[in-house]
Design brief:
4 copies of one chain form a homotetramer. Chain A has 10 helices and 12 strands. The longest helix of chain A has 31 residues. The first copy, chain A, is 34% helix and 11% strand. Chain A folds into 2 domains: 158 residues; 222 residues, Alpha-Beta Complex (paralog of FGE (formylglycine-generating enzyme)), CATH 3.90.1580. Chain A is α+β, with helices and mostly antiparallel strands and 411 residues long. In chain A, helix 1 runs antiparallel to helix 5 and helix 3 runs parallel beside helix 5. Chain A has a 4-stranded mixed beta sheet. A 3-stranded antiparallel beta sheet of chain A has the order 1-4-12, covered by helices on one side. At the C-D interface, helix 2 of C face helix 2 of D.
C-alpha cells in the first residue's frame, strides 16, 4: 500500500483558510435549492444535495477526526451508517438507491453537522503537533479534494433531478458564458511518440490512481486541438448517426435501441412535447435554451463519443496520448469545459498500489468496467483539475459533463 | 352509467363549512412534517404528502370547477399533468413511481394552489344557481370524500416512508390510545342467513361500487365479535406460522419466502439490529413502541390474514357476511381500529354501473385482482366510514392499516 | 378437510380399461412431436411435453402407489424432485421455469417410467382388497382426471412453443373442423333467477373446488346462446378496441400498452413480417391459416374478453349465471369449443374445504388472483368437461383456449 | 479497415482436408449428446449444441459461399434469421436468449444443412480460380477458426446445461488426464522489460484483434511459471477469501454477496445437498469428481482471479506481460489447461482496424467492458491457440475454462 502523497506544502493558516473556503463553496452551490430540492434522488447513481453535504462532512469525521482528534465526539453516532458511501472498512451503509428517502436528518440538522465538523477540523489544524502535522495536512487536503469532487457531483446530480421534472425548472437563472468555445477550425496536432512518461510524481496533491509515473510506448498519432462542438454533433445526428449500427460498439448499439437514444442527454428535438419548439434545445443548469452550435457537446456516454469519432473518420485518444499531448502541444480547452472520454479502460497503472487503510478504497476497487475521462469541466471547482487526473465512469453514463476530443493514427 | 347518488341533503352553508373543515384537516395532518418529509416517495404504491395535498386540489379543479365554474382559471395549466392520478379521460399523467421527484412545485406553491382552489369552490358553493346545485353539491361531496380517502393514504404513506429511514423517526410524538382494544374474550356470533340484502341504497353519500343494493344468499356462519389482537398474532408467529406452507395460499407462501416475511410489516423482532431490544417492537405514527398484546394486529397482507385464520381453525368472512352481520349482531370494533380483510375478491355487484363521465374511472376499472376490506381504521377520518364501504387492495399490500376478524362455517 | 368424492362407481375392469385408454391418449398427443419438441419450455407458465408425461406418472406414483401399493419401488427416487409440480407436502421441487433444462431423463427414459408406473397401477387395480378399493378407485380416478387436465395443457403449451419459433411449424398437418361454429344469429336467453343452487353434488367425479353445492342469489339477466366469433372480434379491433382506454380495466390497459397488444394471441395482422399476407391469419395446432370469421374467438386474456363485452354493450356472465343457465336454457357451444371467461374471481364456495392430505393442495391454495372460466375447449379430452367445472387462470393469461360468451343485466 | 491477413499458405488439397477434419470434429464433439441435449439453452449467454452446429455452417454460407460460389443456393433462406449470431450487416436475427426454443429445424435437418454447406465449400475449394483463391483461402480459414472457437463454446455451454440438471449427468464417461498438473513448486520468472513488441505479424492465421504488432513499455515484473492449482485456491476459500471485502474489486464483492458465491462455479462444498459428500467435489465434462488439488483451478470469474491474487500478495499479469514472457521465459502450462485472466481490459491495440466488411463485426465491436484472457484451455481444439491470441469475456463470466497465473511487480 502507498502512503498518502505529500499535499501542497504550506503553512497551517493557509490550509485552514482553504478549508474554510472549500467548505463554504459547497453551501454556496446548494444555496439556490430548497430543502425539497436538496433531498431528492432521481436515480440510484445520483445522490441528493443534502447527502453530498453530509457525506463530505462524514468523510472528515471518519478519515481525519476519528484518527487525529482524540477528544472528538461524533455529531451523531448513527449518521455514519447514513453517510458512509462505500467504505467497507468504515462500517455499515444505507443502501445507495435509498439516499433520497432520508428526509431526516433535516437540511438544517445537516447544516449543524457541517458546522460541528468544521469547527473540529479547524481546531485540529490549529492544534496538531508537528509530528502529526504531515499526516493531518495530507488527510485534510484529501478531504478537501474529496469535497471538490462532490461539488461537481452535486451539480451533475441536481441537473438530472431537475430534468426529471416535467416543469424543467432551472437550477440558476444565470450561467457564466464560459462554455461557449471560440469557433476555431480544428487542427490536428502531432503528439509525443515513443516511450513517454505519464502519471503524477513530486509535489502537489494527486490521487493514488495517478501513480506511479511510468512510461507508455506511443505510436505516432495526432490529436485535435479543440473539443467537438454541439454543431458538429448535430451533423452526426442529422446524418443518421443514431440509426447506423456500424458506427457503434455492440453494447452501445443495444442501448441506443433499448433506451431509444436519439441525441445526447438533455437535448430536446424540435417538436418535443415536453417543450415544443422549432429547433433543438438543450437543458442545463440555466434551464432550457436553444442549442448553441459553438458550445462543446456534453452529456455524452462513451458509446456516443466513440460512435461520433467513428463517423468522423477518427477515434478517441488514449489517456496516455491525451496526457502526453496536454503537456506538450498547444491544445485548447483541456480544462474547464467538458470532461473528455478517452479510449482507455480504467486499469491500474503498472506498479499501482492503493493508499494504506480505509482510503485505499477511494479509487482502486473501481478499476474494472469503467472508462477514463481526462481534463475537467465547467462544473469542476477551479483549481481542482490537472493533466494527470483520471476521472472514470461506466461507458453508459451520460449525466456527467462529458464530451470528447478527436484523435487519429499516424504522424 | 350511473348518475352520482344524492349526497347528504343539506343547506349550502353547511356544505361550505364542511368543505372548509375537511380541507383544513388535510393541512393539519401534514403539519408535523417538514417540506422534505412531504416530498418523499418511498415506493411506487405510496405518494408524497405534498402530492396528496395537490392531487386532492386538482380533483376539485378537474371534476368540479372545470364543469361548473365557468370563469375559473386553473392555477397552472401544466399541473394537471403532475397531479392527475389515473384518469385517462382527464389527460396525460406524470408516471406514478416518479411523484417523489417533484420538488417543484414547492410545498408553499402547493399551499397557494390549495387556497386558490378552495376560494373558487367556496365561491361556487355560494353562487351556483338552483338548477345546477344538485350536481354541484354531489360533486363537491365527492371531492370531500375523495379528500378523506387521501387523508388516510397520507398517513399510511408517510408511515412507510419513515419506516424506510434507519433513524425510525416518529410522525408525531403523541398518539391517541384509541387503538388499544379491551381484552375481550372472543365470542362467535351467528349472522343473518338466506337471501340477505347488502349494498348501499337511499340517502347519504356512497361510492358507486357500493351499489346497487342486492341480495346474496348466505349459508349459516358465525363471526367473531372482535378483532384479532397482536398478542394472538404473536402466538401464530411463535407457533411457526411463517414457516408452515400448509397454512398459506400459494402466492402468499411464495412471498413469505422471497420477501422473507416473518412478522407483520412494522414489527421488529427481539434483537433486530435496527433497534435492539429484548422484546417485539412495533413501529407506528408515534415511533417505535413495545408490542401491545391487546392492540389489534395491523399491517397484514391478505395472505397473512388468511394464513392466521387457517391456523386458528377459522376463515375470513366474506364481505356479504361482514356487512350483514355488522347490521344485526353486536360486533365490536367494526370501525375506527383497522380495516378488516375479507375472503371476497373485489368483483362488481350484480347490476353495477360506474358513474357517468370521468369519475366512472374512480372505482370500476380496478375491479380485478384485489380483495375487499371492510370497516375502517384509526387513520380513517371520523365520519368517513360506513358498513357498506368497500375498500380494496391487492392481496400482497401490507402498508395499510389492515387487520382481520375471524369467521367460521355453521350455525 | 373433505374426503375425496366418490368417483364414477364401476367394476374394476372398467376402470383398468379407462386407465389404459387415458394414459395411451397422452402418448398419442405427444406422438407428432420429436424428442426436441417434447423438451422445450417457451415460458415459465408452460411446461415441456415430456415433463407433462413424466409429471402425470409421478402423480400416480406419489398419490396412489406410495399409499396403496406397499411393495412398489419408485422408478428412480431422484425423479420426485424433478416432477413434483407444486405439492409442498410431497417434497422438494425443481424450479418451474427450469423444466425445459431437463434433457435428462431422456424421452425414452420417461416412456419407460410411464410403463413402469402403468404396470404398477394395473396391478393395484387388479389386486386391491375390497376395504381399500373405494379409496384406490377414487385416487386412480383423480389421477386420470389430472392426466386429462395435462393433456389439454400439453396442447396449449406446445402451441405456444411452436409460435415462438420463427418458422411457425404446425403441431399437426390436419385438424378436425369442430371449432367452426354455425353462423347463428345471437339470441339473448333469460337465465334462472333468485336463490339458485350451483356446484357439484352426488355421483360422478368432481374436483373439490366444485363443492359444496349451495345457493347463490341471481338477479334477472340474459345470456348469449352462442360464443363470440372471430368475425365479431375483428370488428372490435377495427373499431379501435385496443386503442380505447375507457373499455378496459386498469391493469388490462397497462398490459395493452406495455405488451403492445393489438389482437388476440396467435393472430397475425395483414402484412406482419413473420408471414406476410393481405389478410388476418391465425396460428393454431394446424399451423397458420386465414382467419375464419365464423370460428369462436380464442386465446384471449380476461382483460380482452371484458373489454370486448364492454364495447358490445354487454358484460361477462358470472360463473353462477353461466352454470345456472347451462342447466336450463338451450345454450349452444357450452363445451368443446373454447373455455369461457366469467366475471367471477376464483373464490372458494361457501363451506368449501380442500381434500384431506397432499391432494388438498390441488386446487385450494390457488384461490386468489385468478378468474373462473367455464365450459371446455376443443383441446379438452372428450368426457372431461362438465357444467360445474371451475377452470381458473390469471386475468392476463392468453395461451389457453379461452374465449367468451356475453351476458347482460335485466329480464 | 484491414484486409484479411494471409492464412497459412498451403496447397488446396491440404485446406480441403483440414476443412473436412475440422467440420467432422464438431460432429464428434456433439456425438455423445442426444437431440434433446443438443437443443437446450441454459442461460442467455450459452447456446445450444445444435445452434453451434448450424451457426458455424451459416457462417460459411454467409461469409464464404454467398460471395464466392455464384451458383450456390442457400439450404433454406429462412435460416439466416435463425443462425446469424450478431452480424448487423448480414440481416435480422432471432433473439439470443431464445435459441433454445428452436426445436425446429430438427437435429437431423441441421445435419443435412451441414452436409449441404460442406459439399459446396469443398466444391469451391476445388474450383476457385487462381485470382479468387487468396480471398477464398483466407475466408475458409476464417470459417474454420470460427468453427474451432465454437467447438470450445459447445463444450462450455453443454457443461453449464448439464450442471443445471439436478441429476448432474456427465457429458462423457471418460476424460483425458491432461488437466492434472505436475505438483511443481512455483517459481517467479523475470519477464522482458522496456519497449517490448507484442501482437501478431507475418505468416499464419490470426484474428484482427491481435494486430498490429506494436511496442508496449513494460516495467520490471516477475511471472509465475505455473498456474494456480485447485489446492491453492481451496486455501483461499478456507482462509475466508469469499468473506473478506478488502480482497475484492467493488463490483466483484457485490456479486459475491448477491449471487452468494462461496467457491468457483462447479464446485460443491462438503455436505452440499445436491450430492452429499465429506469433501469438495468438482463437476466437469466427466461428471462429479472429488476435488483434485493438483489440477489447475478453473471456472473462475475475473473478480475471483483478482481476489485470489490479492490474497496471495500478488496480482494478475497484464496481457503484454503474459505475451512477452510466453515468448521468452520457460513458463509451464501456457496452453491446453485453462485460459488465464489478465489484468488488461480488452481495448484495441494502437493502430487497430477491424477487417473490411461484415467480418469487421467479428471482434472490434466488443472492445469495451471485457477483460483479456490468454493461453488456451483443455477444451480448445488442438492447434487453435497461440501466444498472441486475445480471448475476452466480461469480468463476471464463470462458465468458461478460466483460471489464472500470478504476477508481481519488481525485478
Amino acid at each position: 500500500m502507498n502512503a498518502l502523497p505529500a499535499a501542497v506544502r504550506g503553512v497551517r493558516p493557509a490550509l485552514a483558510a482553504r478549508h474554510a473556503r472549500v467548505r463554504a463553496h459547497s453551501l454556496a452551490l446548494a444555496a439556490p435549492l430548497s430543502a425539497e430540492d436538496q433531498c431528492v434522488q432521481a436515480m440510484p447513481d445520483a445522490s441528493p444535495t443534502k447527502w453530498h453535504l453530509a457525506h463530505t462532512s462524514w468523510f472528515f469525521e471518519a478519515v481525519v477526526l476519528a484518527a487525529h482528534a482524540p477528544g472528538y465526539r461524533p455529531f451523531d453516532a448513527r449518521w455514519g451508517h447514513l453517510f458512509n458511501s462505500y467504505y467497507e472498512a468504515l462500517g455499515s451503509r444505507h443502501p445507495r438507491p435509498q439516499r433520497g428517502l432520508l428526509t431526516r436528518p433535516s437540511l438544517s440538522e445537516v447544516h449543524a453537522y457541517r458546522a460541528h465538523v468544521d469547527e473540529a477540523v479547524q481546531d485540529l489544524l490549529a492544534s496538531a503537533d508537528p509530528a502529526a502535522w504531515p499526516q493531518v495536512e495530507a488527510l485534510v487536503e484529501l478531504g478537501l479534494q474529496h469535497e471538490q469532487q462532490h461539488q461537481e457531483l452535486l451539480l451533475t446530480d441536481i441537473l438530472y433531478a431537475l430534468w426529471c421534472n416535467p416543469l424543467l425548472p432551472a437550477y440558476a437563472a444565470h450561467e457564466a458564458a464560459s462554455l461557449r468555445l471560440a469557433p476555431l477550425p480544428l487542427h490536428w496536432v502531432a503528439g509525443p511518440e515513443g516511450g513517454v512518461a505519464i502519471g503524477h510524481e513530486g509535489e502537489g496533491f494527486a490521487f493514488d490512481n495517478e501513480s506511479p509515473r511510468h512510461r507508455q510506448w506511443l505510436q505516432p498519432y495526432r490529436i485535435a486541438d479543440r473539443l467537438v462542438s454541439c454543431g458538429e454533433y448535430a451533423e452526426f445526428i442529422a446524418d443518421g448517426g443514431y440509426r447506423t449500427a456500424s458506427l457503434w460498439l455492440s453494447d452501445g448499439w443495444a442501448l441506443v435501441q433499448s433506451q431509444q437514444w436519439t441525441a445526447p442527454l438533455y437535448w430536446l428535438a424540435p417538436g418535443d412535447p415536453r417543450a415544443p419548439s422549432a429547433q433543438w434545445q438543450v437543458f442545463g443548469l440555466h434551464g432550457l435554451r436553444p442549442l448553441d452550435a459553438a458550445a462543446p457537446v456534453s452529456h455524452l456516454s462513451f458509446y456516443e463519443a466513440a460512435a461520433y469519432a467513428e463517423w468522423a473518420g477518427a477515434r478517441l485518444p488514449t489517456e496516455a496520448e491525451w496526457e502526453a499531448a496536454a503537456a506538450r502541444p498547444g491544445l485548447h480547452e483541456l480544462h474547464g469545459h467538458v470532461w473528455q472520454w478517452t479510449r482507455s479502460s480504467y486499469d491500474p497503472y503498472p506498479g499501482y498500489r492503493p493508499w494504506a487503510g480505509a482510503i485505499g478504497e477511494y479509487n482502486g476497487k473501481f478499476m474494472v468496467g469503467q472508462l477514463v475521462l481526462r481534463g475537467s469541466s465547467a462544473a469542476t471547482p477551479p483549481g481542482h483539475g490537472r493533466d494527470t487526473y483520471r476521472n472514470f465512469f461506466p461507458p453508459a453514463a451520460r449525466w456527467q459533463f462529458s464530451g470528447l476530443r478527436l484523435a487519429r493514427d499516424g504522424a
